[in-house]
Amino acid sequence: MASYISIIRGINVSGQKLIKMTDLRQLYENLGFEKVTTYLQSGNVLFFSTEKDARVLEELIASVIKNSFGFDVPVIVLKAETLEVIIRDNPFVHDEDKDVSFLYVTFLSASPLKSPDLEKILTKRKPREEIAFVSNVVYLYCPNGYGTTKLNNNFLET
Protein backbone atom coordinates (compact mmCIF):
# COMPACT_ATOMS: atom_id res chain seq x y z
CA MET A 1 0.00 0.00 0.00
CA ALA A 2 1.45 3.36 -1.05
CA SER A 3 1.12 6.71 0.72
CA TYR A 4 -0.18 9.62 -1.33
CA ILE A 5 -0.87 13.31 -0.91
CA SER A 6 -3.72 14.84 -2.86
CA ILE A 7 -3.97 18.55 -3.47
CA ILE A 8 -7.47 19.69 -4.33
CA ARG A 9 -7.38 23.12 -5.87
CA GLY A 10 -9.93 25.83 -5.36
CA ILE A 11 -12.04 24.49 -2.51
CA ASN A 12 -12.94 26.50 0.58
CA VAL A 13 -11.60 29.74 -0.93
CA SER A 14 -13.63 32.92 -0.35
CA GLY A 15 -16.74 30.92 0.50
CA GLN A 16 -16.70 29.06 -2.83
CA LYS A 17 -16.76 25.31 -3.49
CA LEU A 18 -17.13 24.48 0.17
CA ILE A 19 -16.30 20.99 1.41
CA LYS A 20 -16.11 20.16 5.10
CA MET A 21 -12.99 18.19 5.88
CA THR A 22 -15.06 15.57 7.70
CA ASP A 23 -17.06 15.06 4.49
CA LEU A 24 -13.89 14.92 2.41
CA ARG A 25 -12.31 12.40 4.76
CA GLN A 26 -15.46 10.26 4.58
CA LEU A 27 -15.44 10.46 0.77
CA TYR A 28 -11.85 9.16 0.70
CA GLU A 29 -12.67 6.38 3.14
CA ASN A 30 -15.67 5.40 1.02
CA LEU A 31 -13.26 5.03 -1.92
CA GLY A 32 -11.38 2.43 0.10
CA PHE A 33 -8.44 4.64 1.03
CA GLU A 34 -6.87 4.09 4.44
CA LYS A 35 -5.32 6.30 7.14
CA VAL A 36 -7.01 9.36 5.63
CA THR A 37 -5.85 12.65 7.15
CA THR A 38 -6.88 16.13 6.04
CA TYR A 39 -4.82 19.27 6.56
CA LEU A 40 -6.70 22.31 7.87
CA GLN A 41 -9.42 23.41 5.40
CA SER A 42 -6.97 23.33 2.50
CA GLY A 43 -8.15 20.29 0.59
CA ASN A 44 -4.77 18.64 1.08
CA VAL A 45 -5.21 15.00 2.05
CA LEU A 46 -2.76 12.29 3.08
CA PHE A 47 -4.01 8.76 2.41
CA PHE A 48 -2.93 5.22 1.59
CA SER A 49 -4.10 3.26 -1.44
CA THR A 50 -3.31 0.04 -3.27
CA GLU A 51 -3.65 1.89 -6.61
CA LYS A 52 -0.25 2.34 -8.26
CA ASP A 53 -1.16 5.07 -10.78
CA ALA A 54 -1.50 8.61 -9.40
CA ARG A 55 -3.36 9.75 -12.57
CA VAL A 56 -6.05 7.12 -11.95
CA LEU A 57 -6.43 8.45 -8.41
CA GLU A 58 -6.65 12.06 -9.66
CA GLU A 59 -9.44 11.21 -12.08
CA LEU A 60 -11.29 9.08 -9.53
CA ILE A 61 -11.18 11.70 -6.77
CA ALA A 62 -12.17 14.56 -9.12
CA SER A 63 -15.07 12.50 -10.48
CA VAL A 64 -16.39 11.56 -7.05
CA ILE A 65 -16.12 15.17 -5.84
CA LYS A 66 -18.09 16.29 -8.93
CA ASN A 67 -20.77 13.65 -8.28
CA SER A 68 -20.93 14.31 -4.53
CA PHE A 69 -20.63 18.10 -4.37
CA GLY A 70 -21.61 19.24 -7.86
CA PHE A 71 -18.50 21.09 -8.96
CA ASP A 72 -15.31 20.42 -10.88
CA VAL A 73 -11.99 20.84 -9.14
CA PRO A 74 -8.46 20.07 -10.27
CA VAL A 75 -6.88 17.28 -8.21
CA ILE A 76 -3.16 16.58 -8.07
CA VAL A 77 -2.03 13.31 -6.48
CA LEU A 78 1.60 12.71 -5.57
CA LYS A 79 3.28 9.73 -3.98
CA ALA A 80 4.78 10.76 -0.66
CA GLU A 81 8.25 9.90 -2.00
CA THR A 82 7.71 12.25 -4.94
CA LEU A 83 6.86 15.10 -2.59
CA GLU A 84 9.99 14.35 -0.56
CA VAL A 85 12.10 14.63 -3.75
CA ILE A 86 10.37 17.89 -4.69
CA ILE A 87 11.17 19.33 -1.27
CA ARG A 88 14.76 18.06 -1.34
CA ASP A 89 15.37 19.40 -4.86
CA ASN A 90 14.11 22.91 -4.14
CA PRO A 91 16.91 25.03 -5.63
CA PHE A 92 16.49 27.71 -2.96
CA VAL A 93 16.38 25.57 0.19
CA HIS A 94 20.15 25.34 0.66
CA ASP A 95 20.78 29.07 0.21
CA GLU A 96 21.55 30.35 3.71
CA ASP A 97 20.58 33.88 2.65
CA LYS A 98 16.98 32.79 2.06
CA ASP A 99 14.44 32.44 4.85
CA VAL A 100 12.79 29.05 4.26
CA SER A 101 9.45 30.44 5.44
CA PHE A 102 9.30 32.34 2.12
CA LEU A 103 9.85 29.28 -0.08
CA TYR A 104 6.82 28.00 -1.99
CA VAL A 105 6.08 25.23 -4.43
CA THR A 106 3.25 25.17 -6.93
CA PHE A 107 2.25 22.45 -9.36
CA LEU A 108 1.24 23.12 -12.95
CA SER A 109 -1.34 20.89 -14.60
CA ALA A 110 0.84 20.74 -17.73
CA SER A 111 4.52 20.96 -18.48
CA PRO A 112 6.83 22.12 -19.83
CA LEU A 113 6.21 25.83 -20.25
CA LYS A 114 6.54 27.41 -23.68
CA SER A 115 8.97 30.32 -24.14
CA PRO A 116 6.26 33.02 -24.46
CA ASP A 117 4.72 31.77 -21.20
CA LEU A 118 8.06 31.98 -19.45
CA GLU A 119 8.70 35.51 -20.72
CA LYS A 120 5.26 36.61 -19.48
CA ILE A 121 5.92 35.05 -16.08
CA LEU A 122 9.32 36.67 -15.69
CA THR A 123 7.89 40.15 -16.36
CA LYS A 124 5.59 39.74 -13.33
CA ARG A 125 8.39 39.03 -10.87
CA LYS A 126 8.83 41.57 -8.10
CA PRO A 127 12.31 42.63 -6.96
CA ARG A 128 14.10 39.86 -5.01
CA GLU A 129 11.54 37.22 -6.06
CA GLU A 130 13.05 34.15 -7.66
CA ILE A 131 11.42 31.40 -9.65
CA ALA A 132 12.63 28.06 -10.99
CA PHE A 133 10.85 25.41 -13.07
CA VAL A 134 11.43 21.67 -13.01
CA SER A 135 8.95 19.76 -15.15
CA ASN A 136 5.50 20.73 -13.81
CA VAL A 137 6.87 21.99 -10.47
CA VAL A 138 7.41 25.69 -9.87
CA TYR A 139 9.68 26.73 -7.03
CA LEU A 140 9.17 30.26 -5.73
CA TYR A 141 11.07 32.44 -3.35
CA CYS A 142 8.83 35.34 -2.29
CA PRO A 143 10.62 37.35 0.43
CA ASN A 144 7.63 39.70 0.76
CA GLY A 145 5.22 36.77 1.22
CA TYR A 146 3.10 34.70 -1.11
CA GLY A 147 0.13 37.01 -0.58
CA THR A 148 1.93 39.87 -2.33
CA THR A 149 3.35 38.02 -5.33
CA LYS A 150 1.79 38.04 -8.77
CA LEU A 151 3.36 34.62 -9.38
CA ASN A 152 0.52 32.73 -7.68
CA ASN A 153 -1.32 29.59 -8.83
CA ASN A 154 -4.02 31.53 -10.66
CA PHE A 155 -1.49 33.51 -12.68
CA LEU A 156 0.79 30.55 -13.39
CA GLU A 157 -2.09 28.37 -14.63
CA THR A 158 -3.47 30.99 -17.07
TrEMBL record:
Transmembrane segments: none
Pfam families noted in UniProt: DUF1697
InterPro entries: DUF1697
PANTHER family named among the record's database cross-references: BLL4334 PROTEIN, DUF1697 DOMAIN-CONTAINING PROTEIN
The protein's name: DUF1697 domain-containing protein
Organism: bioreactor metagenome
Lineage: unclassified sequences, metagenomes, ecological metagenomes
